Amino acid sequence: MADFGSQSIATIQAGLTQKEFSAKEMTEAVFVRIQAVDEQVHAFLETTEAQALEQAARVDAAVAEGRLQELGPLAGVPVGYKDNMNLEGTHTTCSSNMLRNYVSPYTATCVQRTLDAGAIPIGKLNMDEFAFGSSTETSAFGPTRNPWDLERVPGGSSGGSAAAVAAGMVPVTLGSDTGGSIRQPGSFCGIVAVKPTYGVVSRYGVVAFGSSLDQVGPFARSVEDAALTLNALAGHDPHDCTSQDITTDFTAVLGKGAKGLRVGVVPAFMEAEGLTAEVKEKVQEAATKLQEAGAELIEVSLPHAQAAMSAYYVLGPCEAFSNLARFDSVRYGYCDPDHSDLGSQYEASRAKGFGPEARRRIMLGSYLLSAGVYDTYYYPAQQVRTLITQDYLEAFTQVDVILAPVAPRTAFKFGEIGDPTEMYLSDMFTISINIAGNGGMAMPVGLGRESGMPVGVQLIAPPFKDENMLQAAWVLEQAYGVAPVAPAFAQGKVGE
Ligand code: GLN
Description:
By secondary structure, the protein is an alpha/beta fold. It is built from 16 helices and 11 strands. Strand 10 (439-447) and strand 11 form a beta hairpin. The structure holds glutamine. Residues 131-134, 157, 177-181, 209, 316, 427 line the site of glutamine. Glutamine binds at residues 131-134, 157, 177-181, 209, 316, 427.
């Protein structure tokens, strides 16, 4: 049986249409492979066989009637979901002991849209607890491993979503990105990873971290598969007032080429302290490839971007502190037994239910929002946010897309970064985009000269012009090829 997780959406749909295999056979094969492979990677927290087979039957019925394509852009595509997204009947744990036993009472809009578009739900994916982190090491259920080197982290917080695609278990997964959590693991695992403009995808049913920063997006191995998934995800949802009415066909720009495309490069990013030589070289190489394909390179400046990290570690914890208040052991979450009063039950439940990084963010947020302190930090951080947003808008009067690093280095080893503030630097090139709200994506450009690990470059689009970055990404894909499955997990190596 073919290795379906390694195939493109087009190949899967062609195979279904030509009746080379049924959706049921494919779905069963996907679970067999996950069973064989995931012991090493630990991307999945839960698999959803019953729901997958139910949807596969719907797909097979559509094939029998010759109307597979009518199901939608993800017809018959196996998809995995980060475990902060509700899928009715599955657990939604956010990789936290706080929600270890929580069962989704309904389905998140982003998940529902993939199902409405014909996707087959395969399971829920590991993450940093409540999406706090850059390595998936803070999961209460143990870390996910990078399929390119099992001694290394897959990045985070959507590490399970990135690793599942990189190991060829499923062709598409969903992740969420508050400061870099789609793009950084995408880069560490060598795949395509898209954080759309804030408001392109509904956040309804996704457990909130920083509500003004969070955005859902796809992981895939090709730009086309990412664009098809975006077509399914994007659009207004009456349950999320920040979601917008999007009618863009994100595949329309693929194949357009780079002629006339104005690509911005940010000299200050390239000189940033901590950027490794191998990543810098790859960004320069990608710039040259875009130029060779006909793009014009233009230097732009984002004068306030260096303040993004400081603003984020004020705004992010403040929003997280507010959002996590609902886990009070009464309405939601772990309830520590045998307490005679609610106060001590609340205290003990939160102390035991949340891990160290979640507690750190809650304490930080509660301090930053307290009387007297608020004016010193929260208010200026919002002013910085406005300045960064203006920087991007100004830059995008000169260019159509910006090219930048994703992360300063390639995937690190487990335990290598112990200091939380050093871990926070993983997102030094991604965070300003969440602050401003526009789109950003990671695009794989081969392996680093020194580490031999995947390197991604970041393409940044103007607000609600996410198609611009997909256009440039497609050009890079022609130069570098479609992202491969990590060699140790390529077809025939494992589980065949
Ligand atoms: N690494 C960043 C953090 O820890 C971003 C996480 C995210 O995007 N969810 O907050």
